[in-house]
């Protein structure tokens, strides 16, 4: 580890203590720097990894009490006196070492601090790499609708504890925006943990979020931390939050309000330091009115709401995304990059993209893979139904009845954000019937 990456602040050290401790720090790849007590003119100590107070004098203890330092603090003295050790701990020190008897303990403690510092440096490097790969710069598009949302997101990202609710239709990139918020925040070096609330059975979701103790239920042969604990210090991304079971919603609300959780089958309350970002393609306000989502939880999540616009409202972004996807897809498969011709561009602009960016990428991947190498055949795009969609929501007429009915079904599906069950309910038909209409089959 480079010396600049691990700096130990020394205050009120005698010459004998200073040389001993500085030697250990240097052996471990760090550098000891002098830090003046409170009240003196001092060099800034904001970049030190830990502070060692060399003596149990009242001045050293007062410094620890008043400094409020966020870094670990330790006291080193010559007297093996439990009263001095207790006073040091009460003043905010993590431990007290009496030299020379505790020299080995001090060395092991410094070794542990050095490993933790190295881990933080490595985590910072990983966060920097993720920020470049999945940060705001990775969200492609220059349309005014998208830039407005991203500008708002960039303003709230640095606010460490602010809860954010992401909205937008399916496939608009809510997970990508959640990652950008995390890696643009002070929590970037800590975990980003995501969970799709719709993908986990309701009976298991509570244990998944909050963890469980051994014997809490059949099959719980060992204690298991939940995702809130795993995300400690970082961000927990709750995708598809609208599907969270009603009986679990009060427990999530309590966790957000008290910043604490209790494992299933446990009695101990565990404090958590987690930023929560939730996402849904469902309009939660309507879900509250239908009795499907708790109003108090909705207001707790909806501190800042960011809505990603659908692709059809992002003027000019379709072609930019298409060119980027084509290049990435062709390169990943070892194929020559085809040109996006005028006919293909017109077809892309005419489509309404109910599946948004995800649909666009899938359509282009199919076209690139199935077309002769180096070309982009429109026929493969037509097979996906890309040219059969109405422009500006106008039903095609005159047209075959199957096409008119299918277009009406697609419009309702788009209105419900891709939720087929809700679209079928509003149309007054069954979900299988809706699927048959989407497939162009009018037969019962």
Description of the molecule:
α16 crosses α17 (420-427). The relative contact order is 0.08. The protein is built from 18 helices and 14 strands. The chain folds into four domains: 3-125, Response regulator (Rossmann fold, 3-Layer(aba) Sandwich); 142-307, P-loop containing nucleotide triphosphate hydrolases (Rossmann fold, 3-Layer(aba) Sandwich), CATH 3.40.50.300; 311-382, Helicase, Ruva Protein, domain 3 (Orthogonal Bundle); 401-438, Orthogonal Bundle (Arc Repressor Mutant, subunit A), CATH 1.10.10. Strands 2-1-3-4-5 form a five-stranded parallel sheet, with helices on both faces. The chain is an alpha/beta fold and 444 residues long. It is elongated.
SSE blueprint:
Blueprint: E1 7-11, H1 15-27, E2 31-34, E3 50-54, H2 58-67, E4 73-77, H3 82-90, E5 95-98, H4 103-134, H5 144-156, E6 164-167, H6 174-183, E7 192-196, H7 202-210, E8 211-212, E9 224-225, H8 227-230, E10 235-239, H9 249-258, E11 260-262, E12 269-271, E13 275-280, H10 284-289, H11 295-301, E14 304-307, H12 317-332, H13 342-350, H14 356-370, H15 378-382, H16 401-415, H17 420-427, H18 431-438
Parallel strand pairs: 1-2, 1-3, 3-4, 4-5, 6-13, 6-14, 7-10, 10-13
Antiparallel strand pairs: 8-9, 11-12
What proportion of the residues is helical, as a percent range? 40-55%
Please give the number of β-strands: 14
* Overall outline: elongated
Residue share in β-strands: 5-15%
- Going by CATH, the architecture of the largest domain would be 3-Layer(aba) Sandwich
Average per-residue pLDDT, rounded, comes to 81
Across the major sheet, the strand order is 2-1-3-4-5
What number of structural domains do the residues give? 4
The first-level CATH class name of the largest domain: Alpha Beta
From the N-terminal CA to the C-terminal CA, the straight-line distance is 71 Å
CATH topology of the largest domain: Rossmann fold
Rounded to an integer, what's the Rg over CA atoms? Answer: 29 Å
Supply the helix-strand structural class: alpha/beta
Q: What do we call the CATH homologous superfamily of the largest domain?
A: P-loop containing nucleotide triphosphate hydrolases
| Poorly predicted tracts of residues | 39-46, 387-392
Number of helices: 18
Largest sheet: 5 strands, parallel
């Amino acid at each position: 580890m480079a010396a600049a990456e691990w700096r130990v602040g020394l205050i009120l050290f005698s010459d004998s203590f200073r040389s001993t401790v500085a030697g250990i720090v240097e052996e471990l790849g760090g550098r000891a720097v002098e830090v003046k007590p409170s009240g003196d003119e001092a060099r800034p100590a904001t970049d030190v990894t830990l502070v060692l107070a060399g003596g149990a004098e009242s001045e050293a203890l007062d410094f620890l009490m008043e400094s409020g330092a966020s870094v670990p603090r330790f006291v080193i003295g010559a007297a093996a006196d439990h009263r001095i050790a207790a006073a040091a701990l009460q003043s905010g020190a993590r431990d007290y070492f009496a030299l020379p008897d505790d020299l080995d303990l001090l060395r092991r403690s410094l070794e542990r601090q050095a490993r933790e510092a190295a881990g933080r440096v490595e985590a910072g490097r990983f966060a920097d790499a993720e920020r470049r790969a999945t940060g705001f710069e990775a969200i492609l598009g220059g349309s005014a609708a998208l830039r407005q949302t991203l500008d708002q997101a960039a303003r709230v990202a640095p606010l460490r504890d602010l809860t954010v609710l992401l909205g937008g239709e399916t496939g608009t990139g809510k997970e990508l925006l959640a990652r950008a918020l995390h890696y643009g925040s002070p929590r970037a070096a800590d975990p980003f943990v995501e969970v799709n609330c719709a993908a986990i059975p309701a009976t298991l979701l509570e244990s998944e979020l909050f963890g469980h103790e051994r014997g809490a239920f059949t099959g719980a042969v060992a204690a298991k931390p939940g995702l809130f604990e795993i995300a400690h210090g970082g961000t927990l991304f709750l995708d598809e939050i609208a599907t969270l079971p009603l009986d679990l919603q009060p427990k999530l609300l309590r966790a957000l309000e008290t910043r604490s959780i209790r494992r299933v089958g446990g009695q101990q309350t565990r404090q958590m330091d987690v930023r929560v970002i939730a996402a849904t393609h469902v309009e939660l306000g309507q879900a509250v009115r239908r009795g499907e989502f708790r109003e108090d939880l909705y207001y707790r999540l909806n501190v800042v709401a960011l809505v990603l616009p659908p692709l059809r409202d992002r003027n000019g972004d379709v072609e930019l995304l298409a060119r980027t996807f084509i290049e990435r897809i062709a390169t990943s498969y070892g194929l020559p990059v085809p040109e996006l011709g005028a006919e293909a561009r017109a077809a892309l602009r005419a489509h309404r993209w109910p599946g948004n960016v995800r649909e666009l990428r899938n359509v282009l991947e199919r076209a690139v893979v199935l077309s002769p190498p180096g070309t982009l055949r429109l026929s493969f795009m037509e097979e996906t139904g890309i040219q059969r969609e109405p422009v500006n929501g106008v039903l095609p007429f005159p047209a075959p009845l199957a096409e008119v009915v299918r277009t009406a079904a697609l419009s309702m599906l788009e209105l419900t954000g891709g939720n087929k069950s809700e679209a079928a309910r509003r149309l007054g038909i069954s979900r299988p019937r809706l699927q048959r209409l989407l497939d162009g089959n009018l037969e019962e």
